[in-house]
# Entry
Amino acid sequence: MRAVSGATFKEVKFGESGIEPGMLLYKDGDDNDEYKKADANDSAKNKVDGVAWSYGGDGEQGVIVTGNGAVLNLGATLTKDTTYVLSATAGKIVPESDLTTDDYIVRIGTASSTSQIKFQITNTGIQHS
# Structure
């Protein structure tokens, strides 16, 4: 993963193991504001506050990318002009068409090419029907 433009970096404390660059994270206000993997299937975790920039585990310091407008190369193959959302697999990103009934809709952004996405995070709080 690499920043192409507009990225703002923030040092944070991770609140669970297995965090990898590119994972979508939320700030858990009930657990010392630690950052954990966001999840479209969980009403307590269905928001995105940043994207992991570094690897980390529970209680470890890490770096995330925050702020709308950042253009990132996630190191994955994307479909240009496709809107991507938070997945029901914790921390992952998927095309909006992959959402299933009752997944929370958290729009991440739109692929500007087959390798880059412009982040415009929208935590809607709405469940997919």
User: Anything to note?
Assistant: DSSP finds no helices and eleven strands in the chain. The mean pLDDT is 94.
